[in-house]
Amino acid sequence: RACGVSPMSTISNCADVYGENAGLQQAKPSLSMRIVPNPSDRQAELWVEASPNKALQLSIVNSLGQEVYESCWQGASTILPSLPSGLYFVSLKGDELYGLVRWVVH
After folding, report:
1. What is the SS3 string spanning 16-81?
2. Beta carbons within 10 angstroms of residue 106's beta carbon
3. Strand order in the sheet with 67-73
């Protein structure tokens, strides 16, 4: 997959997103992420505090667990793609790091 990062599994239900199944996988150090503005009108910017100096896999998953966007990402911020109204989960994943944030698009 992109960025040399192990493939992400599909989120099968809300329990996977909120960590209720966390005992099934080894926890990774988390990235501090935020989306501005959130909620937003179609477009927003993703910010990562203390961004690592290596490529991460950026993935956006809708409320049905379907991946709607994926790219290789490196830096402190990026403009997220314009998406239809809905609830999304934006994640960044590296071999040793993981971050997840909820994004509401009006």
Report:
1. HHHCCCHHHCCCCCECEEEEECCCECCCCEEEEECCCCCCEEEEEEECCCCEEEEEEECCCEEECC
2. 8
3. 67-73, 56-62, 86-93, 98-105
Give the 3-state secondary structure of residue 7.
coil
Dihedral sign for Cα atoms in the order 17, 43, 35, 48? positive
Do 45 and 81 touch, CB atoms closer than 8 A?
no
Q: Give the C-alpha distances (Å, rounded to integers) separating 76 from 12, 20, 61, 79.
A: 29, 29, 21, 11
For 10-35, the pLDDT digits (tens) are 444 444 444 454 445 556 678 899 99
Question: Is the full-model pTM beyond 0.85?
Answer: no
For 18, other C-beta atoms within 10 Å of its C-beta total 12
Contact between 47 and 58 under an 8 Å Cβ cutoff? The reply is no
Tokens 């959130």 found at: 38
